[in-house]
Amino acid sequence: MPVSDSVDREAGTETDSGADGDDRPEGLPINELFYSLQGEGTLAGVPSVFVRTSGCNLRCWFCDSYHTSWEPTHAWLGLEEILAEIESHEADHVVLTGGEPLLHEESVALLEALDDRSYHTTVETNGTIYRDAPIDLASISPKLESSTPTPERDPKGDGEWEQRHEDDRIDLEALAALVEDYEFQLKFVVTDAEDMPEILALLDDLRDAADVPIPNDDVLLMPEGATRDRLAETRTRVAELAMDYGFRYTPRLHVDLWNDAPET
Ligand code: SF4
After folding, report:
1. Which residues of 227-256 are buried (b: 16+ CB within 10 A; e: fewer)?
2. Which residues bind Mg(2+) (predicted)?
3. For each successive 10 residues of the chain (264 residues), what is the average pLDDT?
4. What CATH number labels 3-217?
5. Any known ligand binding at 215?
6. Which of 42, 204, 209, 235 has its CA 20 to 30 A from that of 36?
C-alpha cells in the first residue's frame, strides 16, 4: 500500500525531523504499509506487516528508506485506517519501522492497539529515543560513525546534516533504557573491519550503563548494502567478522529476494 501516493500534501507539513504537528488528527505519518517477509534479524523469514513511518532524526548517507529521512513524504493515516489495513493481511507479526518510529508519540497508541489484538510487535529503531510501550522485540540499530553524511557521501551533496547527525546518533541513556525494558537485538550495519572498534567500544559503554546482560548472541552484524550488487561486496567480509568476534550475522533477505524494490 503506497500511502504516499494517495495523500493530501496540503494537509500539513512535517518538521525537519518529521515529528508530529499539533493540528494533526489522531494517526501517524506513514510512508508505506505492506505485507512481506521480515528480512533482517532473529525473525528473518517471518511473514509480517510493515508499517513504515515517515520522518527521522538522523540522516545516514546509506539510508535505504530515503523517503522517510532525506525527503520525508507528508502522507498521513488515522489509527483506525492503519489497523484495518494490518488486519487485512494474514500475519501475526507487525514491524513498526521508519524512519524513526519512536519520534512519534502516536506510535505508542498504535503499539497498544496491536497488543490488544495479540500481535507480536517489532520496533525497528535507531536507539536514540525511548518510549514506554508494549514492544515485543526492540530491534535497535545504533548508527556508527560510518553512517555520517559527510559532504562527500551526503546524497544531497551539501553536508548540511553532518554535524547534527554526528551529535545525535548515539544516546547511551536511551539505549540502556531500551535494552533494560524490552527483549532486544542490537543490529549494527557494518561495511568493513574498520567499524569493529567502534562497535566494541559502544558495547563496553552500554554494558556499563545498562542493568541487564547483553550477550553476544543478541548482537547482530548486518552487511551494509541496499542492493544485491552492493551486498555482494559486503556480506562475505561481514559474515567473517561475525565469526571472528562471536557475534550473530544477519542476512538482508528482502534484498536477496527482491533487490531494492519498494514495499519489500
Ligand atoms: S536512522 Fe535509519 S531511517 Fe534514519 S536515516 Fe539512518 S538508516 Fe535511515
Report:
1. eeebbeebbeebeebbeeeebbbbbbbbbe
2. 65
3. 43 40 75 95 98 96 87 88 97 97 97 98 98 98 94 88 97 98 97 96 98 98 93 96 98 90 80
4. 3.20.20.70
5. no
6. 235
